[in-house]
Queue: 2 jobs
Job 1
Amino acid sequence: MENVLTIRNLTKRFGRLCAVNNLSLTVDRGQVFGMLGPNGSGKTTTLGMLMGVINPTAGEYLWLGEKPTHHIRKKIGAVLEHPIFYPYLTGRQNLELMAMIKQAPTSNIPRVLDLVELTGRENDKYRTYSLGMKQRLAIASAMLGDPVILILDEPTNGLDPMGIAEIRSLIQKIASDGKTIILASHLLDEVQKVCTHFAVLKKGNLIHSGPIDDVGKGAEVVEVSADVADLDRLLDTFTGLSALHRQNGYLQVTLKDGFKSKDLNRFLFEKGVVASHLVTKKKNLEQQFLEILNTHDESL
Amino acid sequence: MTLLHLLRIDLRKLTGYRTFWVVCGLYFLTLGLTSASGMEFLKWLARTFEDFGSKLNINRIPLYHFPDIWLNLIWCSGLLKIVLGVMVVISVTNEYSYRTIRQNIIDGLSRRQFLASKILTNALLSLLSLALITVIGLVTGLIYSPVITFDRIITDTEFLPLYFLEVFFFLSYAMMLGILINRAGLTIIVLLLSRVIEAVITSNIDDHVPWLIQYFPMQSIANMIPFPAPRYAFQEIRDWVDPLSVAIVAAWTFLFNWLSYVKLKRSDL
């Protein structure tokens, strides 16, 4: 698969603070790549370096296999941190200016305005826009140059649930066109819903990178309850048990590798106990993320 | 990307900005009015003198006669360049406070191109000032000069390109301050105080290294375009171009633009 982005040992220090430490990463064509990490983990600094606004202390990166130049940036649609426009210009004037910079045809403007459903407000000054409209204009501007790569940094920041859903379906729509998307976010739910791959940063270090399908693999957790007094003692004798916790009034059984919930169900049945509640807990990205962060707590 | 395209990018930012129209409108209006109304000022002066019983022959003061008119106009108009300088500061510091400079780079301008678009606008504003002064000089000169010959008209016009250099020098200085300081208010204060600060320094070193003073930026402008009024007090003034002073101003202009480039290249936006 073609490498869209290759990062090799990228490092940025601000004085004594190391914002990004020796980061190496690749993104392939067609991926929707999620960059996760708590606030201040170096996501925006990394993207800033990739877009030429922050000078790296060390390391290098390649876009589409080439050394970065401002010509390549014209093929990338990027919005970092929050929407940035000239407040005294209208939405359309801002896009026209951007088209001049990207040397993109202005005939794209109606199409991208339509895409983000801003067509009715294009001639109003940018400063009169609501936050959601600003975010949508930012996405429109990123789409303006017909980019092969899209970089979105917290695109749903500060939006209401409806706005978040709108942006999410927009991202999915764009991704289905085969564009490569790099999405930085701390909303894990968000990333899980739209991304194909993800990486986790913490204090400038890359601590995990892989496909999102891997999430949920590993030990299975089953939640049980039954109308018997000593269920926990009974479960202790189950050979497939690796850990047992009590949570929300239920017993959480972590199974050993190779054991499934049906094994637990059969075990209980053989012991003459009928479970009144038996649910396989699918591990979500949030749990995985916290787990990754926690396992690295000691090492960092 | 052609230079014209870069200029159009910066003009697109400015032409949608009302402050730009107001400031530039006031600048060119004031420039036009003050330089065209010197004769009215002289008439008013003569009337005032008459009220006190003395007589002032305004034809003895050939403010608007070729060739005096050129240096008179150029020197007076030079005082107004501060207004354009403030406009340039606003244009540059806006890019920082709105963070649009960051977005411009992200969108695909190189830092060099961004700077070039600003420098080109500075050149255009300087050129417009020059054009206005040339037209006003020709028109008022033709109206008021008692003797009009081609020789008299073109005498001292070699100061016109120097006027362009003076304005461009100052706008480059304003742009550099904006890029170094980033904040509009502070930059404007430094810009306004520059001449004063320089005067304080030069007056202190006057006794020790007087030859150095001509190399100071604001002083170099004063040396390049001499103050014309003393000639009406029957004193000699220099009405020829001093190559050294022009070289010093040109060197400063280059330095301001180059420092802007170095700062922009190195900074994280």
Job 2
Amino acid sequence: MGKRTPLYEEHLALGGRMVDFGGWDMPVQYPAGILAEHEAVRQRAGLFDVSHMGEIDLHGERALLFADELVTNDCQKLEENQVLYSPMCYEHGGVVDDLLVYRLEPGHVLLVVNAANTEKDVAWVMEQRQKHFPDVLAEDISGRTAEVALQGPKAQEILQSLTSHDLNKIAFFWVQPDIEVAGRKALWVSRTGYTGEDGFEIYLRPEDAAHVWREILRVGEPYGILPCGLGARDSLRFEACLPLYGQEMDQDHTPLQSGLKYWVRLEKEHFNGIEVLKEEQESGGPKRRLVGFKLAERGIARHGYPILSPAGEEIGDVTSGMLSPTLGEAIGLGFVPAEYAQVGTRIAVSVRGRAIPAEVIKRPFYRRSGK
Amino acid sequence: MKTPSELRYTEDHEWLRPEGKSGRIGITDFAQDQLGDVVFVELPEVGRAVKKGEAFGVVESVKSVSDVFAPITGKVVSVNQGLVDTPELVNQDPYGQGWIVELEIADDAEVQALLDAQAYAALQEGGH
């Protein structure tokens, strides 16, 4: 039996199909199915249990400085209650994980990390703290933090009917602590997500999670909200080209190779891995790069399938791929040598031994309108 | 889950509907439910000779890829072209419009050796 979130019983009651995900029993889908859940988020709203995510609290005068040393993005630019996305690197430039950094009240920073990596990340943060920031308190608060993600164009309207706090005041990648949602105090509400849509991530005490979950589904019903599982979470993040650790990024690829240059601030004085990344950048950029591609014939490129040159030579592999529910096209992401990374370059994907022609296309595949 | 009594089944969740010298084949209601939304079906070529147990088609859902195994030895006499543009028929009508291929039956004894509805249903209850 895997670990259970405080919403486990809710998933069973809703007919969720439970699967193992990084040691957690999580719903991969509900009876509506992945495509319907995906569409609900793109068109209306969807509610995800993301309580399995890891949360690490940093406390102390130098908490923000510590976070800044851990990650490649620039934490020092953050204002109070602002959030940023960033890779976190080892000294050799490979990625430990990607995470959200919340700058909360003075002396308090929250790191939100991937469920499957929480243990590894906590160990890494503790080690770094001991070496360089012993004055900062670091604490794994995952066990006492539940989290739900309400995503989609109707997310704000739905959440607004459950809180008196004006949600217009929470801008994209900002957070509001201590607001009441459905009569319960939420620890933090941020306008963030992993779907490519507008939406909110709501951090709760475990004992409040089921109530808030039910209330959101109740008030969301007239809007056509659906509870959504990990399947839709993956297809939504894939279309928006939001990377998934272990697929588009890992300890063997630098964030520059993974196409995350925007979140790597080489002008910073220092962060773990900066020397390696600077050198990679200054020597002409990464030799291997993540690209998006589209198949020219019927078929689906799946994780692990070989990417071929037009001549049939193996040049890389697919990290994620599917038939895009929103676009209706067979698209994918994968690593190839830099000379194949230009948009328009012809490549091929080996699908069960058959080379299907493909073309490198622009990322992201999907961008919501009005953004 | 439906398991029509006039069909024969495999432990890999295919069904066969014997009709004279040939039989249509598809995946069971249980299989389509487990797979979730089917988005792509790879069909074999008409005329291909297949051996019992050979993978001769592929059903892909949003999340997964599953082989379709030949329940019996035979020759592909037709394939369901409707699945090319409407693969979701496999979900909507697994025993009807969601059929995948039609095989010419080489050996009736192989058909008789397949599971009947009762045995297949029992298999599912056994937790497969």
